[in-house]
């Protein structure tokens, strides 16, 4: 009888532990979004998630070359407009290779920090600012220059200083230190 009681207690304990783990994983999976074939977990920082996206290998390489990894792993919060590999491919031939050279680190940093806002701006907050601005909202990026947001139908689009338009294709990818919005074109600061 005693052995049966011990086994019953052990089974009950294991089912409670397993059930709690499954519930925690379900919540984590519910709050995560898929980007580049990988789940982006809100419990991880921007870089820890981005390195898993097969669509952002160029961006991750650029962040490493610009020595911005520690910054984007910092407390934040940050809003990052993350161009995909296809977005970088739209740049003039040789541009990415030129920017990745060590002697061009300052230019690369200027480009990358133009994709970052200090603060946590959800898609809803950006849309609210656009509405308040009668169709346009200006944001000061970490590099100090302006980035303009507007609506194109239901999509939020960004316009850089030269008028290049980039669409947010995946919004509100929550991170432990901010939020990522995936974009389909690289926005460039005035240089």
UniProtKB/TrEMBL annotation:
The keyword Chloroplast does not apply. Residues 1-24 form the signal peptide. It comes from Winogradskyella rapida. Residues 43-187 form the FAS1 domain. PANTHER family: FI19380P1, PERIOSTIN-RELATED. This is Fasciclin domain-containing protein. SUPFAM superfamilies: FAS1 domain. Keywords: Signal.
């Amino acid at each position: 009888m005693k052995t049966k009681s011990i086994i019953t207690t052990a089974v009950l304990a294991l089912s409670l532990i397993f059930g709690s783990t499954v519930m925690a994983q379900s919540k984590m999976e519910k709050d995560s979004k898929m980007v580049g074939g990988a789940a982006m977990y809100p419990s991880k920082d921007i870089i820890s998630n981005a390195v898993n996206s097969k669509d952002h290998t160029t961006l991750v390489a650029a962040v490493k070359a610009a020595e911005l990894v520690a910054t984007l792993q910092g407390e934040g919060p940050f809003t990052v407009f993350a161009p995909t590999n296809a977005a970088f491919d739209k740049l003039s031939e040789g541009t990415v290779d030129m920017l990745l050279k060590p002697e061009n680190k300052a230019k690369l940093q200027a480009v990358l920090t133009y994709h970052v806002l200090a603060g946590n701006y959800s898609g809803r907050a950006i849309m609210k600012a656009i509405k308040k601005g009668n169709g346009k909202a200006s944001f000061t990026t970490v590099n100090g220059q302006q980035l303009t947001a507007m609506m194109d139908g239901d999509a939020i689009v960004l316009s850089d200083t030269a008028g290049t338009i980039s669409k947010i294709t995946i919004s509100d990818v929550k991170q432990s230190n901010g939020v990522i919005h995936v974009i389909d074109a690289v926005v460039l600061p005035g240089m």
